[in-house]
Amino acid sequence: MEAEAAKLIGAGLATVGMGGAGVGLGLIFGNYLLGAMRNPAAADKQRGNLMFGFAVTEALGIFSFLIALMLLFVEL
Amino acid sequence: MANPLEQFEIVRMVPLEIAGIDASITNAAIWMMIVITAVTVFLMGGMRRGALVPGRWQSMAELSYEFVASMVRDNVGSEGRAYFPFVFALFMFILGANVTGLIPGAFTVTSHLAVTFAFAAAIFLGVIVIGFARHGLRFFTLFVAPGTPLAFLPLIVILEVISFCTRPITHSVRLFANMTAGHILLKVFGGFVVGLGAAGGIFTVMGVLPLAFNVALTALELLVAVIQAYVFAILTCVYLNDAVNLNH
Questions:
Q1: Is A8 in the B-facing interface, judged by CB distances under 8 Å?
Q2: According to DSSP H, which parts of chain A are helical?
Q3: Which of B74, B78, B105, B139 to pair with B22, CA 20 to 30 A apart?
Q4: Structural domain contains residue B180
Q5: How far is A34 from chain B (nearest CA, A)?
Q6: Which residue of A has its CA nearest to B230?
Q7: Is B91 inside any structural domain?
Q8: Cα–Cα distance measured from residue B248 to residue B245, given in angstroms and rounded to the nearest whole number
Q9: Domain residues of chain A, as ranges?
Q10: In a domain, B234, yes or no
């Protein structure tokens, strides 16, 4: 298989990784909502932790996007 | 369709060479200077009056100070007050660079791994130096979580060391990849708007759709810019806490 074709296939496969990130984000926000509905008074104080957890989880999805971009556009 | 990666190209504006090293003033350097000027004007202009009851500008400057101060206090503790100026400068610069990059036609300074890795590597080295300076060889107890059974100790230590050494990579790539991905998306949908608009007839009307999506995407990118600056700063505080207060 030519390297160019393999790179394109690899870039497509790399997007599978974002599924895991989606699951993780849903878990984080879903749990935050569950907790916020049980204890609305304490919800605002956890906003910082929510944003931090969101960013760290989203990062892994973006890492897989980065691999896809590297496969498509980096000339070696 | 135009290449969406062209926006990240570094262009030498003023070619300079100092002692054989390429020290040209590039577009990245010019935008870094713009960001620093903007942040300095924001802070110094806001505190010019120094009134006891702050006006709007002074309120914003004091808000940014208090935000970073409470973040350092909560994450590093009272010992970490010495590191507040560094974390404040870091947070304001990264926030300024992220948000300035959203101006149409601007260059996003933090969308280059060279820039973000310079920050992350400096923080990583700083954490190691601070850890050894404060605790000496006891710094190595950082890798031993308290209460691990002796049988697992070698495995746990190896895993902890590996996880510690990947910190600069994840720290820098998180910011860089978020900025790059966001700006590539903006450029791709901008290309759609231009392409549909040029096609004429019903396609020009349909060109409103990617434009509306771009507006929403810009709002999302603004949120991501602020959140990524916050996460970079708070992770710096967490890593500093590891070095300053050995909690192991």
A1: no
A2: 3-14, 17-38, 40-43, 47-73
A3: B105
A4: yes
A5: 23
A6: A52
A7: yes
A8: 9
A9: 3-73
A10: yes
Mean of the pLDDT values across residues B21-41?
A: 94
- Provide the number of structural domains found in chain B: 1
Query: pLDDT higher for A51 or B121?
Result: B121
Give the range among A43-47, B178-182, B200-204 with minimum mean pLDDT: B200-204
Alpha carbon distance B95, B63 (integer Å): 14
CA–CA dist B190, A47 (Å, integer): 33
Say if B1 falls within a structural domain.
Answer: no
Q: How far is A11 from chain B (nearest CA, A)?
A: 15
- Binary contact (A58, B178; C-beta < 8 A): yes
In this prediction, residue B120 has a pLDDT band, given cuts at 50, 70 and 90, of: very high
A72 and B CB contact within 8 Å: no
Cα-flanking dihedrals φ and ψ of residue B18, to 5°?
A: -115, 115
Tokens of B154: 């070698």
pLDDT in tens, B42-78: 999 999 988 888 889 999 999 999 999 999 999 998 8
Residue A23 exposed, middle or buried by CB count within 10 Å (0-12, 13-18, 19+) = exposed
What's the fold here for domain A3-73? F1FO ATP Synthase (1.20.20)
